[in-house]
Automatic annotation (TrEMBL), chain A:
Record's keyword annotation contains Membrane: yes
UniProt lineage: Bacteria, Pseudomonadati, Pseudomonadota, Alphaproteobacteria, Rhodospirillales
Entry comment on modification after translation: Binds 4 heme groups per subunit.
Keywords linked to the UniProt accession: Cell membrane, Electron transport, Heme, Iron, Membrane, Metal-binding, Transmembrane, Transmembrane helix, Transport
PANTHER family with a match to the protein in the record: CYTOCHROME C-TYPE PROTEIN, CYTOCHROME C-TYPE PROTEIN NAPC
Region (Disordered): 196-227
Gene3D superfamilies: Di-heme elbow motif domain (1.10.3820.10)
This protein's name: Cytochrome c-type protein
UniProtKB/TrEMBL annotation, chain B:
Localization, UniProt: Periplasm
Pfam families attached to this UniProt entry: NapB (PF03892)
Signal peptide bounds: 1-22
Keywords from the UniProt entry: Electron transport, Heme, Iron, Metal-binding, Periplasm, Signal, Transport
Similarity comment text for this entry: Belongs to the NapB family.
Subunit relationships: Component of the periplasmic nitrate reductase NapAB complex composed of NapA and NapB.
Taxon lineage: Bacteria, Pseudomonadati, Pseudomonadota, Alphaproteobacteria, Rhodospirillales
Major site of localization recorded for this protein: periplasm
Protein name as annotated: Periplasmic nitrate reductase, electron transfer subunit
Record-linked InterPro entries: Multihaem_cyt_sf, NapB
Gene3D superfamilies listed in its UniProt record: Flavocytochrome C3, Chain A
Function: Electron transfer subunit of the periplasmic nitrate reductase complex NapAB. Receives electrons from the membrane-anchored tetraheme c-type NapC protein and transfers these to NapA subunit, thus allowing electron flow between membrane and periplasm. Essential for periplasmic nitrate reduction with nitrate as the terminal electron acceptor.
Amino acid sequence: MKARIPVSLRQAWRTFASPSRTLSLGFLTLGGFIAGVVFWGGFNTALEATNREAFCIGCHEMQSNVYEEMKQTIHFTNRSGVRATCPDCHVPHQWTDKIARKMQASKEVWGKIFGTIDTRDKFVAMRRELAEHEWARLKANNSLECRNCHSAESMDITKQGARAARIHERYLFTGERTCIDCHKGIAHRLPDMNGVPPGWSEASDDPQAPIGHWLADSRPHGGAAVP
Amino acid sequence: MRPHHLAALAVLPFLVPAMLSAQNTEPRRLDSPFRPPVNFVDENPAPPIPPDVTDDRRVARNYPEQPPVIPHNVRDYQITLNNNQCLTCHSRRFTEAVQAPMVSITHYVDREGQTLGGVSPRRYFCMQCHVPQTTAQPIVPNTFKDLDSLVSRPSDQGDRR
C-alpha cells in the first residue's frame, strides 16, 4: 500500500504535517487569517466584477445580439426607468446557486475562445438551443429570477386586464405553470418556435412537448430529448 | 370699355382679399383642416402621446369589411419569420384556453383562392390591417354613416324588405 504513493508526495506530506521550525505560531495563524481575508475578498470582488452588465456586453456576441434586442423591450425602457440588467435575470442571486451557474458558465468561456457564436449567422442558428437552456433553467427553478422582482403576493390582478387576470388566476396562483411557460421572449427575440406550445395551451401539459431539455425534465434522464 | 378699365377689373379679385386681410392685424394663420390652427412660424410643443386603449372590450366594426381593431396591449409582440405571437392566442388551436376570437377563415385563403390549412402567408402580418387604438380625439370629425343607419327609417324598423 505504502509503496504505491510516490516518494515526492510522501515527502511533501511529511513537511506539511510536521510543526514549523522557523515561523512562529502567531505569524502562521495571523498570516493565515489575513491571507484568507485577502483571498476571499479578492474572490468575491472578481465574482461581482463578472456579474456586471458591462462585463457581459464586453463580448461582441452579447453586445450586438442580445443586448441590442433587449434595449427595445420593457425590461430596458419603460415609464418608471427601472430596468433589469443581464445578471438580474440570468444569474441566480443566492450565493451557492450563483457559484453553480458560474461554473456552468465556464462552458461559455470555451464558446467565446473558440467562436461558437462569433457571427450573427452562427448566433441565429444556435438561438433555439441557447433559448432552450434558459427556458429549462427557469422552469427548473420555478422562474426564480422573475420572482426576485415579480412576486405573486404583490401582484394585484384587479389592476390587470381581464384576460391577464384570468390566466394568472388559473395558472400562476395554482402553481400549475410558472412564469417562463407563457412569458418567453420578453426581453429578446424569439427563436423558431416550432413545437413550443404557449403555456396556456393544453398541449403544454404533454411532458414530451414542452422544452425538450433534460434540465427541465423531472423524470430520470433519457426521457424527453431535444427535438 | 377701354383697355385700362379691363385691367382694373382683372386686378379686382386679387385686390379685395388683400384689402380684407390688411384689415386683419393678427399674423397670418395657416388654417388647414389637416393641421391644428397654428401660426406658420410658431414653434409649438408636440401634444402628449395619448395612451393605448387596452380595456379588452371588442369594438364594433364601422362597416362589415373593416378589420377589427385590437383592444389590448401589443407592446413587444413579435411577428417575425420565427414566430407570430398574435397566433399563439388567435389561431384555432389556442382560442379555447384564452377565449380569444379566432382568425376568420378568410385568412386561410391564398391569392389563388385555395383554402390552406392555416393562415396564408399574405395574411401573416396581422398589424398591417389590425391596429390598436389610442384615446386621441380626431382633429377632423368623421361624418361617415354606415349602411344600416342610411337604410333604416323609423317607419320600417324590423320590417325591411
